[in-house]
Design brief:
Elements (H helix, E strand, L loop, with lengths): L1 E6 L11 H4 L4 H11 L4 E6 L3 H11 L5 E5 L8 H9 L4 E5 L21 E4 L4 H15 L2
Parallel strand pairs: 1-2, 1-3, 3-4, 4-5
The protein binds 1,3,4-trihydroxy-5-OXO-cyclohexanecarboxylic acid.
The site of 1,3,4-trihydroxy-5-OXO-cyclohexanecarboxylic acid (DQA) has 10 residues, from loops.
Length: about 140
Amino acid sequence: MRIQIINGPNLNLLGKREPEIYGSQSFDTYFELIKQNYPSLKLDCFQSNVEGELIDKIHEVGFEYDGIVLNAGAYTHTSIAIGDAIKAINIPVVEVHISNVYSREEFRRISHISSSCVGIISGFGMNSYSLAIDAIIEMIDNK
Ligand code: DQA
């Protein structure tokens, strides 16, 4: 099973960026841990601060992999193009947020990607990613 994690803008700064909201662990450290926890999965990770590069990655894996775990960062709240890219592919995408976007500013309650995703996981810290991976594994196993 192949699962692609895609991280959007500013998520390269996890560990340094607003640690009171996003924690003090870097994504690289967390990614090494989850790879150990899912030894039979092919897990890949991609991060970009550029909207078009996120869309290119969605297109690239969206007909090849088994699922995508997508934290589109602030593009969640602004990008119709990322929403359209998710609609264009044929594998399940889980929308992920480290923080609980519904307990924060009003503008974070708007998502242009939720309606195209199979589900949303928000507010469980870095653990949101592994919950999303579990959800994809379960969906595919129960097909
Ligand atoms: C985020 C929440 C977004 O509102 C924010 O712009 C981010 C990170 C999260 O993981 O909690 O960059 O997606």
